[in-house]
Design a protein that fits this description.
By secondary structure, the protein is mainly alpha-helical. It has 15 helices and seven strands. The N and C termini lie far apart (174 Å). Belongs to the PRP38 family.
Length: 366
């Protein structure tokens, strides 16, 4: 009577819930001392106290195939068949890790495929350590996430054959379950993003800041920029610029004077026809004659420019002398004025005659 399943228990996987444990293992549990002393007349409320006293997980061990208390309590839960809410509370318990492990293996044996993935996959984030005993009686350290992965992937756990469940990808294709996002992938993505940010910061530190070259002002801007007052004053003061302008004008005049000679030379060459000894000699003589005239004209131009500059200087000096003399004559009186006027006029006539002689003109009469 003590080993029978409760009357109102529902069949699991089409059979008695206790039959999920193999017969040999089940008989070993019935004969062990822990089952007879500690598991007798347990209820769903009292089984929690016994689960809190567990120290390790496992199946059977030793030469005489002795079951562990964890396996005895699992068979007792299959016998009394607690409600689903109680099992869910076992799984959600965060204070006692062996209570959570007991509820997880019971859900794996009795729950549907959807319930197994729904309630067991969140336990992948539990990394607490568990002690497990093997067939030889040696203890090993595992983690809660390893134990849950073994329940969902392996065929046996704690020396019990686990019932088959549907693959997760099949349930995802039928839209029964949503795709699962692994915590490891999230951590990897975060680490990669942090590494990228660090690399970008280091690269910015290593790359020198580019120095922008100073823009040189364009020639158009230089032309448009208004001249300063200093430049205007310098231009007014410096006579060298005037001289250079006068030289440019003379050069332009020479070029204009040269051009008709060249045209005349070309015309004479065309008239001659380019053939015959006498015509070529005549053209050469004419060209020589034009060259001589051009050189004479150029030399006369240069001499005339020099004479003009000298004449200007003399005019300035003569004007100064006149003013000085006129001022002196005003002081002296009437006679002085007459003599001063006559001397000024004579001096002007002499200067004009010298200039006209240089230019090849007839002198003025006194």
């Amino acid at each position: 009577m003590a080993n029978r399943t409760v009357k109102d228990a529902h069949s699991v996987k089409g059979t008695n819930p206790q039959y999920l444990v193999e017969k040999i293992t089940r008989t070993r549990i019935y004969e062990c001392r822990y089952w007879k002393e500690e598991c007798f007349a347990l209820t769903a409320a009292l089984i929690v106290d016994k689960a809190m006293e567990l120290k390790y997980v496992g199946g059977v061990f030793g030469g005489n195939i002795k079951p562990v208390p964890f396996l005895c309590l699992l068979l007792k839960m299959l016998q009394i068949q607690p409600e689903k809410d109680i099992v869910v509370e076992f799984i959600k318990n965060e204070d006692f890790k062996y209570v959570r492990a007991l509820g997880a293996i019971y859900m794996r044996l009795t729950g549907t495929s959807i319930d197994c993935y729904k309630y067991l996959e969140p336990l992948y984030y539990d990394y607490r350590k568990l002690k497990r005993i093997d067939r030889n009686g040696a203890f090993h350290i595992i983690h809660m996430d390893e134990f849950i992965d073994e329940l969902l992937r392996e065929e046996r756990a704690c020396d019990i054959i686990l019932p088959r469940i549907q693959k997760r990808n099949v349930l995802e294709e039928t839209n029964v379950l949503e795709p699962r996002i692994s915590a490891i992938e999230e951590d990897v993505d975060e680490m990669e993003s942090e590494d990228e940010d660090e690399l970008i910061k280091e690269a910015k530190k290593l790359i020198p800041q580019e120095v922008k070259p100073k823009r040189s002002p364009s020639p158009h801007r230089r032309r448009r920029s208004p001249p300063r007052k200093e430049n205007r004053e310098n231009r007014q003061r410096s006579p060298g610029r005037r001289r250079s302008r006068s030289r440019d004008r003379t050069d332009r005049a020479d070029k204009r004077h040269r051009s008709p000679g060249r045209r005349h030379k070309e015309d004479s060459h065309k008239r001659s026809g380019g053939g015959g000894g006498s015509s070529s000699k005549r053209s050469r003589q004419e060209s020589d004659h034009h060259d001589r005239d051009r050189d004479r004209h150029r030399s006369s131009r240069q001499t005339s420019d020099k004479d003009r500059s000298r004449h200007r200087d003399k005019d300035k000096s003569s004007r100064d002398n006149r003013e000085h003399r006129s001022h002196r004559d005003e002081k002296r009186g009437g006679r002085g004025e007459k003599s001063g006027k006559s001397s000024v006029t004579d001096q002007e006539i002499k200067d004009a005659n010298e200039m006209r002689a240089k230019l090849g003109l007839a002198p003025l009469k006194l």
